[in-house]
Amino acid sequence: MPEYSTSPSGEQFCLPDKDDYAAEYKRLQELVAVARQDGKEVVVVMGLGFVGAVMAAIIADTVDKHNGHSTKFVIGCQRPSTRSYWKTPLLNSGHSPVKSEDPEVEPMIARCVLEKKTLTATYNPECLALADCVVVDVQCDYSKQDLGMMKTGETEMAALEATLKTMGERIQPQCLVLIETTVAPGTTEFVALPILRKAFRARGIQSEPLLAHSFERVMPGREYVKSIRDFWRVCSGCNAEAKRRVVNFLNEVINVEQFPLTVMDRPIESETTKIVENSYRATILAFLNEWSIFSERNGVDLTKVVKAIKMRPTHSNIIFPGPGIGGYCLPKDGGLGYWAYSHLLGFEDGDSVFKISTVAIDVNDTRALHVAELTRDALRNMGRYIAGARVLLAGASYREDVGDTRYSGSELVVRKLTEMGAEMSVHDPYVDHWYELENQDSYPAPGHSWSKFFRNQQDLSGIRVQKDLASALRGAEALVLAVRHAPYLHLKPDDIVRWVGGPVALVDCFGILQDDEIRRYFELGCEVKALGRGHIQRIKEEVRSPKETSEPETALRI
Ligand SMILES: NC(=O)c1ccc[n+]([C@@H]2O[C@H](COP(=O)([O-])OP(=O)(O)OC[C@H]3O[C@@H](n4cnc5c(N)ncnc54)[C@H](O)[C@@H]3O)[C@@H](O)[C@H]2O)c1
Q1: If 195 and its partner were Cys, which of 31, 81, 164, 357 is the partner (CB 3.0–4.6 Å)?
Q2: Cα(147) to centroid of ligand 1, in Å?
Q3: Which residue has the least CA distance to atom 7 on ligand 1?
Q4: How many helices (H) and strands (E) does the chain have?
Q5: Which of 230, 265, 300 is at the close of a domain?
Q6: Could you tell me the end-to-end alpha-carbon distance of the chain, in angstroms, rounded to an integer?
Q7: How many structural domains comprise the chain?
Q8: Backbone dihedral region for residue 186 (phi beyond 0: left; psi -120 to 50: alpha; all else: beta)
Q9: What CA–CA distance (Å, rounded) separates 346 from 335?
Q10: What CATH number corresponds to the domain at position 343?
């Protein structure tokens, strides 16, 4: 029985048969022979995911700064699993396997595959033997066992370790291996190097593998390509030659003239830079959670507090946290550091050393649960119960104006409210499919869905993201505004109430509503609650108190 891999748009691709591998390798050998005749360097990118697919295209787009000729031929290597194989034929037809809001991604991939012919994709890892340089962009996840207890989780390095073993068995001795994957500090020197060395020795190769590390800082959104190519990089190598080679490579493919490279002494320093910068960001977000609760209970609008503090140049990066942090990196990277301290580096006192970074992740991972409490309370104030209530969540992605739903706080909001008996529906202008819900048995991987932390989640696989807000709102009892997507910033209260067909309970998770809008919602008979915005009670009292208002409360008649 042939096996198929289905792309997000529903296109099916038959997985390669074992007899296909020889012909595929011959295809690659021929392409490489032509590339070498042109004087191009051959680069294999392992893993065509969010990072690898775009990085492969950026490398393939590299030209000699003097004569404008392409200098690299890139082979993107993607394992042929039923889940991921589709990325290979899709890229080979000139299309991006990752959906991005950045208008540069699709044309760059089309240009490199179809016009310049500097990029191809394969499922055959034998391509590694043809490489002058291998860039590793496979995943290294941190899997959490309990909600809000990051410390009980563990690093999942199996895919990375398997990739390294495959590489050690095939690469040429002088091939540069560049690990871009965000790894637990120590991985390059204490996991990857020994794996490559052992494989080299088994092949009778006496020279040291040339191994380097340089992490990605890619950001989803309209500047996806720029966040890889035109951004500051940090790198290091396991020995002087590896360091020299990685610096040369990044000098060619990244815009280091405008975004200078930082070269560290050792890979563990480059690895630690990534973990610390993301732990720092996770921590400054988490720390505001307690002030958010404080604000809700004491009549303070935290969004205005944050704005006032930002006026100080020294505090300009303070940010109001939404209903959770999300994205692929911030929820996990501190975990990689905590785990490495004990499991790779052998220290037993991790629990007394790591206090802030670990708690920050736990706070961020559970902030969304409070949104469910606010929704329950807003409904209660309208004489409604959460059980059986029709609740529309507006915004599934983890940050504004992108369609990226990985580890979004919105997912926890939906799951918790579902557990409490709400009838959930979802709107998002940027998200076509919410795979964390639709494919919750297998996405992000079997056994990894956050559904395991809640009861009664099975029906969520039937949720489809709606695009028309007016029709999505019809008959809703509560509206949770979860993300600061541009189309949500200027919604008119009168429209919302008209679309719903009556007063609705609103929950603002991200400082989306302006004070005059909040006032109007109360005038229309709605209830409003928000993360970190205690002044809402004051507005409500002003509207509802006859002494404060000259006009009688506007009753809603629809
Ligand atoms: N996505 C981001 O926003 C982001 C930002 C900064 C850093 N990073 C880091 O970059 C790394 C990659 O992340 P991603 O988002 O691209 O992951 P991803 O899961 O989207 O992609 C990884 C790809 O590697 C493939 N793969 C796994 N093993 C393979 C093998 N042996 N051979 C060939 N392919 C293989 C997988 O099938 C998958 O397609 C991670 O360490 C991540 O932390 C990601």
Answers
A1: 164
A2: 24
A3: 216
A4: 20, 17
A5: 265
A6: 59
A7: 2
A8: left
A9: 16
A10: 3.40.50.720
Pair (295, 176) in one structural domain: no
Q: If pLDDT is split at 50, 70 and 90, which confidence band does 502 have?
A: very high
pLDDT band at 553 (very low <50, low <70, confident <90, very high): very low
pLDDT, residue 349, reads 98
Count of residues for the chain? 558
Same domain, yes or no, for 300 and 218?
Answer: no
- The Å distance, Cα 54 to ligand 1 centre, comes to 11
Output the residue whose Cα is nearest ligand 1's atom 15: 50
In this predicted model, what pLDDT tens digit does every residue of 186-224 receive, in sequence order? Answer: 999 999 999 999 999 999 999 999 999 999 999 989 999
Question: Alpha-carbon distance 447 to 460, whole Å?
Answer: 16
What 3 state SS string does 129-167 have? HHCCEEEECCCCEEECCCCCCHHHCEEECHHHHHHHHHH
Residue 279 covered by a domain: no
Nearest to 484 by CA among 531, 423, 438, 528: 531
| pLDDT value of residue 546 | 65
pLDDT at position 552 over 90: no
Q: How far does residue 528's CA lie from ligand 1's centre (Å)?
A: 40
User: pLDDT at position 195, please?
Assistant: 98
Indicate if 96 and 214 belong to the same structural domain: yes
Question: From atom 10 of ligand 1, which residue's Cα is the shortest distance away?
Answer: 181
Burial zone of 241 (CB within 10 Å; 0-12 exposed, 13-18 middle, 19+ buried): middle
Q: What pLDDT score does 445 carry?
A: 86
Mean pLDDT of the chain: 95
Tokens of 245: 């080679």
242 near 270, Cβ under 8 Å?
A: no
CA atoms within 13 A on the CB side of 196: 28
In a domain? residue 40: yes
The beta strand positions in 349-492, using DSSP E, are: 390-394, 423-427, 478-481
For residue 88, report the distance from its CA to the centre of ligand 1, in Å.
14
Q: How far is CA 18 from the centre of its chain?
A: 34
User: Residues with Cβ within 6 A of ligand 1?
Assistant: 46-52, 77-79, 84, 137-140, 159, 162-163, 166, 181-182, 216-218, 220, 328-329
Query: 294 near 529, Cβ under 8 Å?
Result: no
d(C-alpha 448, C-alpha 305), whole Å: 37
Report how far ligand 1's centroid is from the alpha carbon of 132 (Å). 21
Instruction: Residue 371: give the domain boundaries.
Output: 286-544
Ligand 1 geometric centre to CA of 49 (Å): 5
Report the pLDDT averaged over residues 386-399.
Answer: 97
Protein residue with least CA distance to atom 31, ligand 1: 163
219 shares a domain with 174: yes
Segments in 50-146 forming alpha helices (H): 52-60, 87-92, 105-110
